[in-house]
C-alpha cells in the first residue's frame, strides 16, 4: 500500500481504514437485509475523503478489452487510461486474466489520489472456462444443488482469474421462444426462476464475498426484459400491475432477499418508461420497499439509449433521469462522467443521491475485501490450478447429463446397447465442437467441447462401427471462426444439399441413426430473435431423407430455445433434448444414449406445435371463453392446438412412475395456516430413476385473475424399481399469497386446487378452502 503521496490528514484516516480492515475473522455478510456496521463505518470514512470527481468516478464502468499490456493507443483507450489514473473509474468489465487485471489495478493504485481499487466484472453466465450447460438447459435438471455447484465452480475459476463480479444470473421470466435470450434464464415460470436464481446467487457468492473463491452476483435484467413484444430483443414491454408484480418481479424479490450483491437494469421500456430510468422500480420498490442495499448497474449503454427511446433529450438529460431513478453505475454510456457534476450544480440531482450510489459501490468493494488487498484475487498459481481442471470438467459432465430431457422414446429405442454393430452419427451439429458451448461462453475456447461423435466413440468398443456424415452445413461461414458473436451474421445454408446422399448411404447401413440437428451456438443469445423456430437451413430435408431409409432415428436436439418439433415428433420414434450442454456435451449425451445415466430432466419451457402459438406458457390465465367444445368461438386457434406439444415440466425416463393417493391433511385453513399435501410416487419400471415431483396450485377466484395452474414446489427423488416414496409439500401463506388488487401481498380467502404430478398437465387434484 503506498500512502506516501497522500496529505497528512488523509494518511491518518486511511491508515485507520486499513488497520480496521486488516482485522480478519470478520466475514462480510452478503445478505443485504442488514448492513454490516463495521463496513458502513469504513464506507463513511472513505466517502468523507472523496472529492466530487472521485465520487462520480466510482459510478463509471468501462469495458476494457485489453490484455496485460494495458490500454492501446486509440483515443478511447487513452481516455480510459487518463480516467483510471485520476481515480475516476469505479469498475472495469471484460478484462480477464490475472496478468491483465493486475496491470489495470496497478494503474489506479500507482497514480490515483485515494487508491480506491477497481472491481472487475465479466459475463460469466454458464461457466468461465469450464463450460456448463446454458442456463435454460441446466434449469431442466430441476436440481438446485448442482446448479449451485456449477455457479460456485464458475465463481472459483473467475475469482482465480482475478475477477470479482459476474453479470448473472438472468432471472427474466421468458415466455416467447422467438426471443434469443431465452437460453440465458430459467424459463417461463416465476417460481422456477426464483429458486434457480437464488441457487445460482448462492453458488456465485457463497457465504462470504471476501472469500477468494467467490464473486458478486448480478440479478438481471430489472425488469421485464423477457416480455419484449413479439420476442424482438430490446423491445417495448406492455404489462400492467398484475403481470409486473406477480410474474416479473417475484424472482427479483427472491434475489434481493437472498442477498444478490448487485442488480442490472434493462434495455426495454415498461409501459413507456425505460427500465434504466424507472424510479418506481429501482428507488421505490427495490431500494425502498425491499430495503436492498446493493448496487444497480445500468445495462450496456442503456443510459445513453434513453435518447433513442425518445425519453431523454440528450445524454445530460439521460444522466439526470437515470441517477434520479436509482441507476447507480453507468456501464459504457459516458453519461455520468460527462454530466453528473453539472447536474449537481444545477440542482437537478442531489449530493445525497450521489453519495448513496457511491456508498453502494464502496460497500461492495469492502465486502469483496478489495480495500484490504486490491490484488487479493490476482494469483497466477491459483489461476493455473483452478481453471479448467479435471475435477471441474467432471462436474460439468454430471450437470450436462442431468440437464438432458427425453421427450419421446417409442418402443424404448433408447438406451442403445453398446454392442450394436453399427451406429450412424449424422447432422450438421454431430461433430460440432463449438456449438455445445452455447452463447455467452465466457472464456470457453473455440471448438473445445466434446462433440457427440467423439462422445459416442469414447463410449463404444471396437466392435461397433460408427458411420459419420455431416449431411448439410447449417450456416455458411461468413467470418473467421471464434470471432465476436455480435458481428456474426448468421447466413443459413439453403442451397447446398450435396452432402445428403452420403448421409442416406450411412443411415442405410446402420442399425440406428443419431441425427444431431437444431441450432448452432449463436442462433440464440442477445440480438438473436427469430420468427422461425424450426430446423433452419436444409435440416428438414436431411431429416426426411434419412427417415426414408432408416426409421430408427434418435433426434439429438441441440438448441437454446423451445423449437417447433411438430414434424420431427411425428416421424422420429425418439427425441432427446440436449440444449447446448457445454464442455463435456458429447460424453454427457453418450452417458444417456447408452444408459449409463437414466435421463431425469424436465422442460422449464413449453414447446409449441408451431411458432404462431408464441408466447406460450402453461400458467396462463383463463379467458371468459377458455377452449371448450361448448363454445362456438373460443380463445385459441382454428389451425393449431392451444396447448403445447411438449408441456412445461415434462420429461421421460427409461423407467416409469405412477402417482397415487394425493392427500391433504385439512380441507380448510385460515389465511396464515398450513396444509400438508402428500402423494405416493412409485417406480413402476425395471430401472432405478429420478423423478421431479411437482406441486401446482390454482386460486379459483382472485381480485386479479389468477393463472390456471402455478408451480409452487418440487422435489427430485430417486426410486429403485418397485420402490414407493411418499413426498410431502407444505402449502402455507407464502405458497398462496399474491400481489392483490389492494397493491399488497396477501392470501385471499376462497377455494384452491392442488395438483401433484410429473408435469404441468397432471390431473391428480384435491381442493381446499381458505376461510376468513
Ligand atoms: C447485456 C447484459 C450484459 C452486458 C455486459 C449487455 O448487452 O444485455 O446482459 O451483462 O451487455 O456484457
TrEMBL record:
- SMART domains linked to this entry: Fn3_like (SM01217)
What is this enzyme's EC?
Answer: 3.2.1.21
Keywords for this entry? Glycosidase, Hydrolase, Signal
This protein's source sits in the domain of life called Bacteria
Q: What's its catalytic activity?
A: Hydrolysis of terminal, non-reducing beta-D-glucosyl residues with release of beta-D-glucose
Which Gene Ontology MF annotations are present? beta-glucosidase activity
Q: What class of enzyme is it?
A: hydrolase
Q: Which residues form the Fibronectin type III-like domain?
A: 691-760
PANTHER family documented for this protein = LYSOSOMAL BETA GLUCOSIDASE, PERIPLASMIC BETA-GLUCOSIDASE-RELATED
Family membership, please give it.
Belongs to the glycosyl hydrolase 3 family.
User: Would you tell me the protein name for this molecule?
Assistant: beta-glucosidase
Which gene is the coding source of this polypeptide chain? bglX
Amino acid at each position: 500500500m503506498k500512502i506516501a503521496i497522500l496529505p497528512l490528514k488523509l494518511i491518518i484516516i486511511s491508515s485507520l481504514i486499513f488497520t480496521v480492515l486488516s482485522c480478519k475473522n470478520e466475514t462480510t455478510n452478503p445478505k443485504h437485509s442488514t448492513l454490516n456496521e463495521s463496513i458502513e463505518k469504513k464506507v463513511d470514512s472513505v466517502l468523507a475523503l472523496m472529492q466530487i470527481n472521485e465520487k462520480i468516478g466510482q459510478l463509471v464502468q468501462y469495458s476494457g478489452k485489453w490484455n496485460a499490456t494495458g490500454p492501446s493507443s486509440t483515443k478511447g483507450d487513452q481516455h480510459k487510461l487518463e480516467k483510471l489514473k485520476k481515480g475516476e473509474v469505479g469498475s472495469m468489465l471484460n478484462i480477464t486474466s490475472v496478468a491483465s487485471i493486475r496491470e489495470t489495478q496497478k494503474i489506479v493504485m500507482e497514480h490515483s489520489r485515494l487508491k480506491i481499487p477497481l472491481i472487475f466484472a465479466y459475463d460469466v453466465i454458464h461457466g468461465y472456462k469450464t463450460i456448463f450447460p446454458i442456463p435454460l438447459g441446466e434449469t431442466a435438471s430441476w436440481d438446485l444443488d448442482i446448479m449451485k455447484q456449477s455457479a460456485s465452480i464458475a465463481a472459483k475459476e473467475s475469482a482465480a482469474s482475478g475477477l470479482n463480479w459476474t453479470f448473472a444470473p438472468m432471472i427474466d421470466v421468458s415466455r416467447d421462444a422467438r426471443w434469443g435470450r431465452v437460453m440465458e434464464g430459467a424459463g417461463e415460470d416465476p417460481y422456477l426462476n426464483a429458486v434457480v436464481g437464488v441457487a445460482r446467487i448462492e453458488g456465485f457468492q457463497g457465504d462470504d464475498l471476501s472469500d477468494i473463491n467467490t464473486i458478486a452476483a448480478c440479478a438481471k435484467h430489472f425488469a421485464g426484459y423477457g416480455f419484449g413484444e413479439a420476442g424482438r430483443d430490446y423491445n417495448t414491454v406492455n404489462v400492467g400491475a398484475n403481470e409486473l408484480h406477480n410474474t416479473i418481479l417475484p424472482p427479483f424479490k427472491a434475489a434481493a432477499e437472498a442477498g444478490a450483491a448487485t442488480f442490472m437494469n434493462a434495455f426495454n421500456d415498461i409501459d413507456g418508461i425505460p427500465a434504466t430510468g424507472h424510479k418506481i422500480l429501482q428507488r421505490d420498490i427495490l431500494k425502498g420497499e425491499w430495503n436492498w442495499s446493493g448496487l444497480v448497474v445500468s445495462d450496456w449503454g442503456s443510459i445513453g439509449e434513453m435518447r433513442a427511446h425518445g425519453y431523454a433529450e440528450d445524454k445530460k438529460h439521460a444522466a439526470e433521469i437515470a441517477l434520479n431513478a436509482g441507476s447507480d453505475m453507468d456501464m459504457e454510456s459516458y453519461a455520468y462522467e460527462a454530466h453528473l457534476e453539472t447536474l449537481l450544480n444545477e440542482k437537478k440531482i442531489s449530493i445525497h443521491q450521489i453519495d448513496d450510489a457511491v456508498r453502494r459501490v464502496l460497500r461492495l468493494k469492502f465486502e469483496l475485501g478489495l480495500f484490504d488487498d486490491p490484488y487479493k484475487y490476482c494469483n497466477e498459481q491459483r489461476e493455473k490450478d483452478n481453471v479448467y481442471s479435471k475435477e471441474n470438467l467432471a462436474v460439468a459432465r454430471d450437470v450436462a447429463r442431468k440437464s438432458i430431457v427425453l421427450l419421446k422414446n417409442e418402443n424404448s429405442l433408447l438406451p442403445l446397447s453398446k454392442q450394436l454393430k453399427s451406429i450412424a452419427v449424422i447432422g450438421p451439429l454431430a461433430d460440432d465442437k463449438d456449438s455445445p458451448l452455447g452463447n455467452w461462453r465466457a472464456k470457453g475456447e473455440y471448438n473445445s467441447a466434446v462433440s457427440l461423435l467423439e462422445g459416442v466413440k469414447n463410449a463404444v468398443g471396437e466392435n461397433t462401427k460408427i458411420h459419420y456424415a455431416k449431411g448439410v452445413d447449417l450456416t455458411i461461414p461468413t467470418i473467421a471462426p471464434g470471432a465476436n458473436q455480435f458481428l456474426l451474421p448468421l447466413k443459413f445454408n439453403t442451397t447446398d444439399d450435396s452432402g445428403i446422399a452420403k448421409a442416406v448411404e450411412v443411415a442405410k447401413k446402420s442399425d440406428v441413426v443419431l441425427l444431431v440437428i437444431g441450432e448452432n451456438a449463436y442462433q440464440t443469445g442477445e440480438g438473436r430473435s427469430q420468427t422461425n423456430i424450426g430446423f433452419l437451413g436444409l435440416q428438414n430435408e436431411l431429416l426426411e431423407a434419412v427417415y426414408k431409409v432408416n426409421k430408427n432415428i434418435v433426434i439429438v436436439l441441440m438448441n437454446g430455445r423451445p423449437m417447433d418439433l411438430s414434424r420431427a415428433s411425428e416421424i422420429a420414434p425418439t427425441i432427446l433434448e440436449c440444449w447446448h450442454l457445454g464442455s463435456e456435451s458429447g460424453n454427457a449425451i453418450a452417458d444417456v444414449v447408452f444408459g449409463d445415466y437414466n435421463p431425469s430432466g424436465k422442460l422449464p419451457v413449453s414447446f409449441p406445435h408451431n411458432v404462431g402459438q408464441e408466447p406460450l406458457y402453461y400458467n396462463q390465465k383463463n379467458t371468459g371463453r377458455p377452449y371448450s367444445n361448448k363454445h362456438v368461438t373460443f380463445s385459441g386457434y382454428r389451425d393449431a392446438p392451444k396447448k403445447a406439444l411438449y408441456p412445461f415440466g415434462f420429461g421421460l425416463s427409461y423407467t416409469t412412475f405412477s402417482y397415487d393417493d394425493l392427500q391433504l391433511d385439512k380441507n380448510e385453513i385460515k389465511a396464515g395456516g398450513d396444509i400438508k399435501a402428500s402423494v405416493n410416487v412409485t417406480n413402476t419400471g425395471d430401472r432405478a430413476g429420478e423423478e421431479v415431483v411437482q406441486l401446482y396450485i390454482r386460486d379459483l377466484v382472485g381480485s386479479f385473475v389468477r393463472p390456471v395452474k402455478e408451480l409452487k414446489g418440487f422435489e427430485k427423488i430417486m426410486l429403485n424399481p418397485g420402490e414407493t416414496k411418499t413426498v410431502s409439500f407444505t402449502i402455507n401463506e407464502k405458497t398462496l399469497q399474491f400481489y392483490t388488487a389492494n397493491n399488497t401481498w396477501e392470501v385471499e380467502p376462497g377455494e384452491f386446487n392442488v395438483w401433484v404430478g410429473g408435469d404441468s398437465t397432471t390431473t391428480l387434484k384435491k381442493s381446499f378452502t381458505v376461510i376468513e
